[in-house]
Amino acid sequence: MAITKKQTAELAKQVFEYAPAPEAIDHIKIQPRYGLFIGGRMVDAHGKKRFPTINPATEKTLSEVAEADGVDVDRAVKAAGKAFDSWSHLSASRRARYLFRISRLIQERSRELAVVETMDGGKPIKESRDVDIPLSAAHFFYYAGWADKLEWAFPNRKPRPIGVAGQVIPWNFPLLMLAWKIAPALAAGNTVVLKPAETTPLSAMVFAEICMQAELPPGVVNIVTGAGNTGFLVVSHPHVKKVAFTGSTEVGKLIQRAIAGTGKRLTLELGGKAANIVFEDAPLDQAVEGIVNGIYFNQGHVCCAGSRLLVQESIAEPLLEKLKRRLSTLRLGDPLDKNTDIGAINSRAQLEKIQGLVESGVEEGAELYQPECVLPERGFWFPPSLFTNVSQSYRIAREEIFGPVLSVLTFRTPNEAVEKANNTPYGLSAGVWTDKGSRILWMAERLRAGVVWANTFNRFDPTSPFGGYKESGFGREGGVHGLLPYVELT
Ligand code: NDP
C-alpha cells in the first residue's frame, strides 16, 4: 500500500521528535540570600535593600541579592586598595598559581556553573556548558600564563600594575565577561571591584566561593551586586584607577562623561550591529549554519551578533529558502533541556525592547518571517525571526535589537557590500562568507569592525583580541592586547 504525502510528513515528525533531556539541577545549591564578597568573605551589605533574581524561563525567584550602596562600594574599594600593596608585590609566578587554581576550580565546578548560568540568565544549557564555562576557564588559564611573562609581553618596557580596577559587566555572558575582566587585571598585578548585572548575579556569587576555595588573598577580588546605581558608584569611586565596562553604548557614554578629566583609564566594550556578508561563491549550507549561529546563538543577546545579513542578490532566493527551512528546525523551550537551541529572553524589559523594535520593523514596511513555534506559557520568549524587504534606514537595520531577530539586505558588488556593512555607527564585528581567500583579505581591509570572521561567526578564543571601533567602544580584551589596559609602561 502506497504511503500518502500526509503519512510521510507524520512519520518524519515522529522520527525527528526529540525526547526531553533536561539537565539535573539537584546537584546545585542556590542560597536563598546572598551578601557581598568583600575582603575575602561574604559580608552583609550596609544597604538594606535587596532584589530578587529570577529564572526568566519560569519567572520563579531563585534568590535575593543585596543592593550595594555607597558605603558598601567604598568598603569594597578600600579592601581592594589594601590588597593591592601585597598582591602587586607578590612574585609573578605565585600570582600565576592563583589564576591557574581558579581556572581549575571553574573546570571542576563547570556543571554547577553551567546550570546556574542557564537558570539565572535563560541561555540554553548546551551553550553555557560548551561555550561560556569552558571559555571562562580558558581565560584564567591563558592569563595565568602571562602573569610571569609580562616583560616579554611588552619588550624593552617595564610594566607595572595600575591599582584598583572597577569593572561593570552585562547579563548576556555573565561568567565569561567576569573572566574577561578579572583574569587580565589580576595577572598584571591589579586588584578589582566587580559589579555583575542585576538580572544575572548568581554565577558571580559562585565565583566568589571559588576565590575563597582558591585561597586568593582577601581583597584581591571584591564583588558588589546591585543595579545601575551601584555600577555608577564603582566606576566613579575616586580610588578606582581603571574602569572596564561592557554594556550598552548609552551607559558607556554616560560613564565616559562621568569620569572625564579624572585620569582614570577606561576601556569600553559596547553595542554592535554586525554585518554577516554572504557572497555568491560561498558554500551555502555552511553559510546558513553561520548565519543561524551569528544571530540566534544566546537568543541574539550578543554584542557582536550578525544581526544584519548582507546577501549577494544572485543567491538571495535559494539562501533565504534554506535559511527559513533551517529556522523551522530550531527548538525553542526549556533552557535546561540539552536539545534546546533557543532559550528564554533574559528579562521582561529586554523582551519588551525586542517586541517594540520588531513592531517598528513591520510598521516601516519590512516583511517578517517567523517559523511555526509554540512559546511556553510562563517566562519570556521570542521566536527566531527574520525580516526581508529591509531598507537601511529602518530602525531594525540601524539599532541593536539584542534579540533573535535578523534583518536581511542584499548587495550586488563587493564595494556595495562594504559600503552597506560600514553604514552603521557601530563597528564591533563582521562576517564574510566566500570561497576566495583574496576576497576575504580585500573585505577585511575595508570593514570598519574590530573582529572580522571569515567563513565562520561568533568564534572566540582567549588568545585573540576583541573590541570595537566607533560607538562600539575602544580598548581590547583578550590576547596580549588585553593586558595593555591594566599596566603602566615605563
Ligand atoms: P546596560 O548598559 O544598562 O547594563 C550593563 C551593565 O552596566 C549592568 O551591570 C548595569 O547594571 C550597569 N549599569 C547600568 N547603568 C549604569 C551606570 N549609569 N553606571 C555604571 N553602570 C551601569 O545594559 P542593559 O542591561 O540595560 O541593556 C540595555 C541594552 O543594552 C540592551 O537591550 C542591549 O541592546 C544593550 N546591551 C549591550 C551589551 C553588549 O555587550 N554590547 C550588553 C548588555 C546590553 P544593571 O544590570 O544592574 O542595570
Question: What key attributes describe this structure?
Answer:
single chain; 490 residues; alpha/beta; Aldehyde Dehydrogenase, Chain A, domain 1; Aldehyde Dehydrogenase, Chain A, domain 2; 2 domains; seven-stranded mixed sheet; six-stranded mixed sheet; binds NADPH dihydro-nicotinamide-adenine-dinucleotide phosphate
Question: What topology emerges from the helices and strands here?
Answer:
Elements: H1 5-16, E1 33-34, E2 36-38, E3 41-43, E4 50-55, E5 60-66, H2 70-89, H3 92-108, H4 110-121, H5 125-147, H6 150-153, E6 159-161, E7 164-168, H7 174-187, E8 191-195, H8 202-213, E9 221-223, H9 228-236, E10 240-246, H10 249-259, E11 265-269, E12 275-278, H11 284-296, E13 308-312, H12 316-327, H13 348-364, E14 367-369, E15 385-388, H14 395-398, E16 405-411, H15 414-422, E17 429-433, H16 437-446, E18 451-454, E19 473-474, E20 487-489
Helix pairs in contact: 3-5, 4-5, 5-7, 11-12
The chain binds NADPH dihydro-nicotinamide-adenine-dinucleotide phosphate.
The site of NADPH dihydro-nicotinamide-adenine-dinucleotide phosphate has 26 residues, from helix 9, helix 10 and helix 13.
User: Portion of residues in helices?
Assistant: 40-55%
> In CATH terms, what is the fold-level topology of the largest domain?
Aldehyde Dehydrogenase, Chain A, domain 1
Unreliable segments (pLDDT under 50, ≥5 consecutive)?
none
Strand content: 15-25%
> What's the tally of helices?
16
Shape category: globular
With strands numbered from the N-terminus, the spatial order across the biggest sheet is: 14-15-16-13-12-17-18
How many domains? The number is 2
Oligomer: single chain
Rounded average pLDDT: 96
Largest sheet: 7 strands, mixed
What is the alpha-carbon Rg in Å? Answer: 23 Å
Q: What's the CATH architecture name of the largest domain?
A: 3-Layer(aba) Sandwich
Please, what is the CATH homologous superfamily of the largest domain?
Aldehyde Dehydrogenase, Chain A, domain 1
